[in-house]
Amino acid sequence: MTIQPLPPHESPAALHAVMPAGLPADAYGRRMVEVLRAAGAGMTVHALPGPYPQVDPSAILAADIALARLPDGAPVLLDGNALFNLAASLPADDRRLRFVALVDRLHWIDPDLTADEAAVRRNLEQGALSLMRRVVVPDDETAATVRALGVRPDRVVRAAADDGGAAALMAVLAAL
C-alpha cells in the first residue's frame, strides 16, 4: 500500500517531533517520522543532545526550550527514547500541546537495570505516558506493556513503521 500525499487543504497542522539526536536511523520513531514525511506530512524535528535513554541535563534543557517555543495546539510526536528527558517538561505543556508518544519499547523492563533503576525509569515512563493523548506502538506486546502502566486502551494505537502505519498515525493526528 502506498500512501499518497494529502492535498494542501487536507494536511494536518505542521507536526513537531522530539527525539534524541543520536537515535539510530532504524529506530521506530525515526522510521515513523520518515514514513509520515513520505506521506506528505510537514515535519520539524527537534533533536535532543546527550545519550539516550539516560537522563541528561543538556537534553532536559533542550526539551524545555523546544516545547516552550511550540505554538498552542501543535501536535507533537515524542520518541519513547526521549521520555526520560521530557518527563519534567511535559506537565507544563500537556494541556497546551497535543502529545503523541512513539514507543517501540519501555526501558524500565531492561534486564540489565537494578531494581532501583528500573523503579525510577518505570515511574518516569508511567508519568510521561499518562500525559499522552495517544501512545503509538509497533506491536501487541508493547501495547500490552503500555496498558499495564495504566494507559487507557483507547489511547494505545498499533502502527507499524510503514505506509499503513503512517496512514493510521495520520488518522490519529487528524482526530486530535
CATH superfamily: Glycogen Phosphorylase B
> What is the element string, with H for helices and E for strands?
EHEHEHHEHEHEH
Main sheet makeup = 6 strands, parallel
At the fold tier of CATH, the topology name is Rossmann fold
Globally, the shape reads globular
Measured as a percent range, the helix fraction is 25-40%
Offer a concise description of the structure.
By secondary structure, this protein is of the alpha/beta class.
Write the layout of secondary structure elements.
Blueprint lengths: L14 E6 L7 H11 L4 E6 L8 H13 L5 E5 L3 H4 L3 H4 L4 E5 L12 H15 L4 E4 L2 H9 L7 E3 L4 H13 L1
Parallel strand pairs: 1-2, 1-3, 3-4, 4-5, 5-6
Write structural notes for this entry.
This protein is of the alpha/beta class. It has one domain (10-175): Rossmann fold. It has seven helices and six strands. It has helices spanning 28-38, 57-69, 83-86, 90-93, 115-129, 140-148, 163-175, and strands at 15-20, 43-48, 75-79, 98-102, 134-137, 156-158. The chain has a six-stranded parallel β-sheet with strand order 2-1-3-4-5-6, with helices on both faces. The longest helix is centred in the C-terminal third of the chain and has 15 residues, at 115-129. Residues 1-12 have low confidence and may be disordered.
Structural descriptors:
alpha/beta, 7 helices, 176 residues, Rossmann fold, globular, six-stranded parallel beta sheet, 39% helix, single chain, 16% strand
